[in-house]
Every structure is written in C-alpha cells, then in structure tokens.
Amino acid sequence: MLRFTTFVALFLLTALTVTARPSAARPDRNGEPTAKPSDRLYEIRIYYPTPGKYAEIVDRFRQYTTKLFEKHGMENIGYWTPTDTTNKQLVYILAYPDKAARDASWKAFGSDPAWKEVVAKTEARGKLVAKVDQIFMKETDFSPKVSVKAKSPARTFEMRTYTAAPGKMPNLLDRFRNHTLKLFKKHGMTNVAYFLTTEPTAPDANGQPRLVYFLAHEREAAGKASFDAFRKDPKWLKAKGDSEKDGPITSKVESLYLVPTDYSPMK
Predict the structure, then answer these.
(1) Helix (H) or strand (E) holding 50
(2) CB-CB neighbours of 123 under 10 Å
(3) At 88, is the pLDDT very low, low, confident or very high (cuts 50, 70, 90)?
(4) DSSP states of 128-179
(5) Average pLDDT over all residues of the chain
(6) Mean pLDDT of the 129-158 span
(7) Is 203 exposed, middle or buried (0-12, 13-18, 19+ CB in 10 A)?
(8) Residues 154/259, Cβ–Cβ less than 8 Å
(9) Residues linked to residue 161 through DSSP beta bridges, in sequence order
(10) Dmax over Cα atoms in the chain, in whole Å?
(11) Structure confidence at residue 64 (pLDDT)
(12) pLDDT number for residue 11
C-alpha cells in the first residue's frame, strides 16, 4: 500500500511539473509574447496559367475552387496577383492541421464529383493551368500569429524569400528575431507572417530551409520607401554589421509585391 501511495504521489508531482513548464513564446505584432508557434502546415501555391487563360483561372477560384477547398477542410488564408500585371501568376496560401490532413483533403477534393464538373465546364476549350509551384512551410518561433484580416482599403503585400549563406540560417533567424521585425515596424511595415520551408519542399543547395515571410504596406510605393528608410537606419546598420562579422549570412533575397483578389480572406 505504501509503495502504491508513493507511486501516485510521484506521478502527480511529475504531471504538475510538466503542466507548469512554460511554452516557448513568440512576439506578437507589438513585440509582446503570445502562444508558442502553431504546428499547422501552410502551403503556398503559385499558378501559372496557359496563354490567354489568366482571367479564367482567377475567376474559377472566385466562383468555385475556394468554396470546394473549404468543403474539404482546407483553410483559405489569402489569394493574390502580382502588382506587375505583366507577371501572370495567382499566388495563394492554404493551411492544414498537418501533412496527413493536407493529403487527405486534396485526395477528397480531387475525387469530388463537383470539382470534376467544374473542370469539365471551365476547361471545355483547353486547360487553364500550365504549371503549379508548391512551397510547404511551418511558422517560425518569432512569427506573429497568422491572422486572416480584411482591411479597407486593401493593403499591398510583399512576399520575400531568403536563401541563407551556407550554415548561416540560425544567424539569419536570430537577426530577424532580435532586430529586423522591430525595425520593420518602426518604419511602417506590418509583419504578417514568417515561415520556414519544410518537406516536401526541396531545401536549398546547402540543405537548409528557406525563410519566407509576408509584409503588408499601404501600397507598393510606400513599401519601397519604408525599405529605403530601414536600410539607412543606424540600428539596422549596426545589427547587420554585428551579424556579418564573419561574412554575409544571406546568399539570395527575392521580393514579390502582391495585391489581394476580391475574394481573398486576407486583404
């Protein structure tokens, strides 16, 4: 009886210890701690339409696809087209509980008679999509909570993709965590979400994930002006210098300015 009582006491003590252990916190848009990063899987999908079919693919999402995604358990985060209208792409983000849920949802979506009917109707005169790129991601520990908000007037978004120098991804993440987000906010940019690519997205040539993040601006010109001021900020110059004492920590930076579609949940 004594042994059993001792066992129960130890079990309860262990349970309380685990429960009381604080979770990793991350800053919100105001720099205040929030909950630990979500385990959700995010997927960026970039559609390249066949020639002359750009408006039709954008409209198919408006009329049919987003609703069928919801039907099959996918969360519509945002839908955008480039501000450069010569760049014919549709960029969107979906969220899922995990990879298994993602695969199950897409399997159900693809076999849905309603979707097959939509395809037959909209592709009677030829395919709409020439190619689809996919990027799978998880939130970083310093990302604001991904919040689907529609602002009025709609904002301009910027998708930025960073490839780190060999072995330098931890340094790059530290710089964002400790300096960059605060300085972006200081210069009028809204931190929307920060992600690290994950499997099955291919890593970079050095086997590292890529950092993909989204900022929001009043418009494209305002975003470029904010970045000009950011790059001249003495605090940024110091943070950059301190973090690059042993050489650059990025090897490639890509930027794409985007405007939300009329049916995008995030605007």
Answers:
(1) none
(2) 15
(3) very high
(4) SEEEEEEEEEEE-TTPPP------SSPPEEEEEEEEEPTT-HHHHHHHIIII
(5) 88
(6) 94
(7) middle
(8) yes
(9) 212, 254
(10) 80
(11) 98
(12) 33
Q: What is the DSSP letter of 180?
A: I
pLDDT at 28: 47
Give the H/E segment covering residue 102: helix 99-111
pTM: 0.85
Are 48 and 130 in contact by the 8 Å Cβ rule? The answer is: yes
What would the two tokens of residue 7 be? 């066992």
- Residue 37: predicted pLDDT: 62
| Run of H or E residues at 196 | strand 190-197
How many helices (H) and strands (E) the chain has is answered by: 9, 10
Provide the token pair at 55.
């408006």
Tokens of 126: 């030829």
The per-residue pLDDT for 38 is 74
H/E segment holding residue 115: helix 113-122
d(CA 179, CA 189): 14
